[in-house]
Amino acid sequence: MSIKPKKGVYDLPDYVAGRTQEEIKQKYNLTEVYKLASNENILGPCKQVMEYLKDNPDDVNYYPDSDALETRNRIAQKYGVHRDNIILGNGTDQIIEMICDCFIENGVNIVIAEPNFPIYEKSALKCGGQVIKVPLCEPDFRQNIPEIINSMNRSTKAVFLASPYNPTGTILTEDEFLDVLKNTDKDVLIVMDEAYHEYLEDDRKIDTVSFIKENPNLVILRTFSKIYGLAGLRIGYGIADREIISILNKVRLPFNVNLIAQKAAVIALENDWYASRVRDEITAQKEKFYSFFDKSGIRYLRSHANFILVKTGDESNRIVEELLKSGFIVRPGLNLGIPGYIRVTISTPEINDRFLERFIEIYRMAYR
Ligand SMILES: Cc1ncc(COP(=O)(O)O)c(C=O)c1O
Predict the structure, then answer these.
(1) pLDDT at residue number 20
(2) Where are the domains of the chain?
(3) Cα 343-158-86 angle, rounded to 5 deg
(4) Is the pLDDT score of 73 beyond 90?
(5) CATH class in words for 48-270
(6) What is the pLDDT of residue 116?
(7) What's the confidence (pLDDT) of residue 173?
């Protein structure tokens, strides 16, 4: 082909998405396939959101409010901030992209832990920035905060942290978070990705939003994709100083979040009790996984999100493949930068039971 993209486009890392249920059904001739690979909330959105979706098909005909006033007001109300402190994205993915579009260019870098959720790196590279990667601590796979602080240099423009962390489910303590705030220059953005925040036990939650006033370089990211069950609608939000938000709005496309997503998000927040209920159910199910793995002598990481990283060793590829043949899609650690592990999204009690039963048969067969 004679037409060539801009320099660097071919070098961008590809995002390896989870396999789809349809693909696995066809490949293995299965009627039922369970997707335990992308950390969606298998319980789905609350009943009120489902009713809205069912009863309002005509909403597809309309452009959304480009300023998403009602949704931003609702979010602002939840956190006791002004709507000018809120930006919506087509998923938080898009807010990460907007942050890089506004702040990252040739000659500057971002600091991230490694392995990590891949969108930070991809978005920074796309803008010509460099990426400084700090390996996770061994053996607990936590973000190495002292090293992350040490790695920032005069060209650092942003540091991306996550709590709970994907793909490990580990978290930052409040002391670690405060250390980052204290030791980061005020002209460096601190992006705190809290996509799985609502899954945290109440006594583990850090009130990160309350730090924005004193730290205008702090951006908090949260999403409706995870506990609220709206991953397919694509809506996430950022909370930050209004100056940062107004900068991000410069690159935001006017209708970046569709009308149905905006309305569903409002209804989800009106029914916020649902998030705690999902959290409690998932927490109970995680305990079941832990005791099952403990009894079976299988290592795993205790997780603060709705997924668990399980050590499957040298036979991981075979185990993933056998699980696929049995209708369970899990995420191979190899694709996440943690070979020898698989990441499993917690599902309903029945599906979890079926998964564990099949998993242990496959695991024992693989190591016979
Ligand atoms: C840590 C983390 N941040 C952000 C996202 C993106 O979420 P969204 O669906 O809001 O784009 C994900 C999704 O998997 C994630 O794991």
Answers:
(1) 87
(2) 21-45+274-366, 48-270
(3) 85
(4) yes
(5) alpha beta
(6) 93
(7) 97
pLDDT in tens, 215-226: 999 999 999 999
Interacting residues of 113 by C-beta distance below 8 A, sequence separation 6+: 133, 134, 135, 136, 143, 144, 148, 161, 162, 165
Q: Which mutation among 193, 233, 234, 343 tests ligand 1's pocket best, with the greatest number of atoms within 8 A of CB?
A: 193
Q: What is the CATH number of domain 21-45+274-366?
A: 3.90.1150.10
Nearest to 166 by CA among 296, 37, 270: 37
Q: Are 342 and 363 in contact (CB under 8 A)?
A: no
Q: How many angstroms from the chain centroid is the CA of residue 108?
A: 25
By DSSP bridging, strand 34-36 and strand 328-332 are parallel
Beta strand 236-240 pairing with 328-332: unpaired
pLDDT level of residue 123 (50, 70, 90 thresholds):
very high
CB atoms within 10 A of CB 48: 14
Starting at the edge strand that comes first in sequence, how are the strands of the sheet with 307-311 ordered? 34-36, 328-332, 341-345, 307-311
**Predicted local distance difference test score (pLDDT) of residue 261:** 98
Q: How many CB atoms lie within 10 A of CB 187?
A: 8
How far is Cα 316 from Cα 297, in angstroms, rounded to an integer? 16
Helix, strand, coil percentages in the chain from 3-state DSSP, rounded to 5: 45, 15, 40
pLDDT at residue 37 is higher than 90: yes
End-to-end CA separation in angstroms for the chain? 51
Give the integer Cα–Cα distance in Å for 274 and 278: 6
Chain centroid, CA 10 distance in Å = 25
> Do the Cβ atoms of 268 and 250 come closer than 8 Å?
no
Going from the Cα of 92 to the center of ligand 1, the distance in angstroms, rounded, reads: 6
Q: Report the atom number in ligand 1 closest to the C-alpha of 225.
A: 9
114 vs 132: CA distance, rounded Å: 9
pTM reported for the whole predicted model: 0.95
Q: Name every protein residue with a CB atom under 6 angstroms from any ligand 1 atom.
A: 39, 91-93, 117, 162, 166, 193, 195, 223, 225, 231, 236
Lowest mean pLDDT among 7-16, 79-88, 250-259, 265-274: 7-16
Give φ, ψ of 42 to 5 degrees: -60, -25
In this structure, what token pair is assigned to residue 58? Answer: 């005509």
The alpha carbon dihedral of 271, 273, 276, 282 has a sign of: negative
